[in-house]
Specification:
With about 325 residues, the protein is mostly beta strands. The N and C termini lie far apart (about 40 Å). It has a single domain, classed as Neuraminidase. Strand 3 and strand 4 form a beta hairpin. It contains two helices and 27 strands.
Length: about 325
């Protein structure tokens, strides 16, 4: 039996377990799929709920300098802050574009969040249709880019910052009411882009119907992109050449079986651990899997888990799950840094 058949069998097994579970757990839990998960998550550890009452939680980001978590609520146009021992507080309001027409813009706020090498906040501004930068010390905000080939972006969704400062980001139409049929849509494609430190913007892939989460391997030789397409949900992988340009595009994980098994959600946000392990949103929850797509574990919350972030110097994984935010303790040393 070849590796592809083994991996397909593993995904099918997860799908059958998802279909068989009833009722869906109201309490978040870890489903252990491989003994290798014990090197990442302590046996018996379960996620805790740290924030509730959110319209749609997205874009978690740990800020080590202040030891707090930021997370977005795109439809509410707010970024909130969680800090241990303190109430959840509003951090940015509005987080995206103010004064948008709800008949035209369904998600006016920030979505994906990241930090640049100088500790400044980067925002995938869904409503403003731009990539923004905020100086956390002064609050000064600037739009780094809002157009490609003279046309406005759709609604930037998620980002990854490379070591050279380049920002790789996705631009699906989710922020626009009506999606591809929106009268505001100017781009002919839903693209994957790279913004270079010198301000040059490049379209890397315009063939994906719904590009969403994005991440790189630790050696920056691979680019991963989630595709939240209901007809063909998948995670793509690209090899990156010496210039950081993608080639050899292929499907890493076909998520149709997971979706057919009843798992809530679609491929969405992801992060890559220091050892190359992917932690990625799939139908059913947040999956730990190897770079070869071997499933190791699944975090379930009974609703789509949209995105995740490592934090607390690698001691925790934070996850945005529908109307709430989860924290899972990780094995000491696995993600330390």
């Amino acid at each position: 039996m070849n590796r592809r058949a083994v991996l397909a069998g593993g995904v099918a097994l997860i799908a059958s377990r998802l279909a068989a579970q009833a009722p869906t757990p109201a309490v978040p839990r870890v489903r252990r799929l491989s003994p290798a998960l014990d090197q990442m998550v302590l046996p018996g550890a379960q996620p805790e709920v740290i924030a509730t009452g959110i319209r749609w939680a997205e874009g978690p980001l740990w800020v080590e300098k202040g030891k707090y978590l930021l997370f977005a609520d795109p439809p509410a146009n707010i970024v909130r802050r969680w800090q241990r021992g303190r109430p959840v507080a509003v951090f940015l309001d509005p987080s995206g574009a103010a004064g948008t027409d709800s008949k035209l813009v369904r998600e006016p706020g920030a979505n994906g969040l990241a930090l640049d090498a100088h500790g400044r906040l980067l925002i995938a501004n869904s409503g403003g249709r731009s990539i923004d930068r905020v100086d956390l010390a002064t609050g000064k905000r600037v739009a780094l880019v809002d157009r490609y080939a003279g046309k406005r972006f759709n609604s930037p969704n998620d980002m990854h910052v490379a070591r050279d400062g380049s920002i790789y980001f996705t631009d699906p139409p989710y922020g626009l009411e009506g999606g591809d049929a929106s009268t505001l849509k100017e781009q002919a494609v839903n693209g994957v882009y790279r913004l270079r430190p010198n301000g040059a913007i490049e379209l890397l892939d315009g063939s994906l119907p719904r590009p969403n989460g994005i991440a790189m391997s630790p050696d920056e030789r691979r680019l991963y992109v989630s595709v939240s397409d209901e007809k063909a949900p998948r995670i793509m992988v690209y090899d990156l050449d010496a210039r950081g340009m993608p080639r050899n595009a292929r499907v890493l994980l076909d998520a149709r079986t997971l979706l057919a098994g009843g798992g809530p959600g679609l491929p969405d946000g992801m992060k890559v651990a220091r050892d190359g392990t992917l932690v990625c949103s799939v139908p059913g929850g947040m999956m730990f899997m190897t770079p070869e797509a071997e499933p190791l574990g699944l975090i379930e919350d009974g609703s789509p888990i949209a995105n995740c972030a490592f934090g607390e110097r690698g001691a925790a994984l934070f996850m945005t799950s529908g109307t709430r935010v989860l924290r899972l303790a990780l094995k000491p040393g696995w993600q330390a840094g």
